[in-house]
Amino acid sequence: MTHIGGVQSWCLGVTLQLVLAAVLHQGLATVAPPTTAPTPPAPHKDPGRPEKGDYLVNRSNGTACLLASMGLQLNITYNSVSQNKTVHDVMNLQPNVTKPSGSCDSDRASLLLSTDAEKTNLTFVFTLNATSNKYHLSEVSMSADWPDMKKPVSVNNSNLDYLRGTFGFSYMCHEEQTLNVSQDLSINTFQLQVQPFGLTGDQFGAAEECQLDEDDMLIPIIVGAALAGLVLIVLLAYLIGRKRSHAGYQTI
Ligand SMILES: *[C@@H]1O[C@H](CO)[C@@H](O)[C@H](O)[C@H]1NC(C)=O
Ligand SMILES: *[C@@H]1O[C@H](CO)[C@@H](O)[C@H](O)[C@H]1NC(C)=O
Ligand SMILES: *[C@@H]1O[C@H](CO)[C@@H](O)[C@H](O)[C@H]1NC(C)=O
Asked: Residues near 161 by Cβ (< 8 Å), separated by ≥ 6?
């Protein structure tokens, strides 16, 4: 009896081991890299949300003139060496390896972001309308020379109208926003706050929120109002009910 039991458990043990081996093999097979090793230059794999960077531009006298805080993701279309076709590659700007520079005039402020390692230059130009006291992002240019690019990509659009704000105020957009620059470049911004004109010290002025954020805030407001309405109705029903039962009590 014990002997048969031993054989059975031995069989079970072997089966378990076989199953385990099969599962492990399966797992390894899916994890293992393809037989042809990928060439070193390759498009960036789904980079996730970009980290937020703080960028400051000073005037020649050392005072701050442009302040930006944002996560940036570049979506570049180019001819890939490794894939031998056109790809849409998404790259996050890494704040710790991104150097800001730029310049400020009375009606024009620029922010240049350069990454050495990635060989990318990105310039934002803001324009101020002195009559209306409004500014906007009017121009973006970019040049990139990545290892995977068959030839460098250079893009410029000086006819943009994004990130509209008022002199002395900052423009803010927590939600992801896409700035379409050209056929070959779009920029996704995350948790953006920027002020290109009318800074006091190196602090942002009061923020003007973008429409996307306001729409976002509308939902909790509507839900809150609905809940408040519900509470009011229940309270009224209770009060009316109490009055009635009270009245009924008196007639008896
Ligand atoms: C990048 O751009 C392509 C085409 O312009 C688009 O299909 C894709 O969804 C974009 N990807 C991201 C993450 O923005
Ligand atoms: C500046 O704003 C004024 C008033 O809104 C407008 O009439 C004018 O065309 C704007 N100027 C430029 C260069 O956009
Ligand atoms: C970026 O700008 C620097 C300085 O002007 C230049 O040396 C470099 O070649 C530029 N990189 C690209 C990819 O255009």
From this structure: 136, 137, 138
Mean pLDDT of the chain: 84
For the cut 50, the answer to whether the pLDDT of residue 24 exceeds it is: no
- 108-109-115 Cα angle (round to 5): 145
Q: Tens digit of pLDDT for each residue in 114-129?
A: 997 769 999 999 999 9
129: left (phi over 0), alpha (psi -120 to 50) or beta: beta
Domain boundaries of the chain, sorted by first residue: 53-213
Stronger pLDDT, 11 or 77, i.e. the higher one: 77
- Diameter of the chain by CA atoms? 100
Nearest Cα residue to atom 8 of ligand 1: 88
Q: What DSSP string describes 87-98?
A: EEEEEE--GGGE
Nearest to 140 by CA among 119, 156, 162: 156
Q: In ligand 3, which atom is closest to the CA atom of 121?
A: 1
| Ligand 1 mutation target, pool 88, 91, 92, 177, most atoms within 8 A of CB | 88
Q: How close is the Cα of 143 to the center of ligand 3, in Å?
A: 7
Instruction: Look at domain 53-213 and name its CATH class.
Output: mainly beta
Side-chain half-sphere exposure of 114, counting CA atoms within 13 A: 7
Atom of ligand 2 nearest to the CA of 129: 1
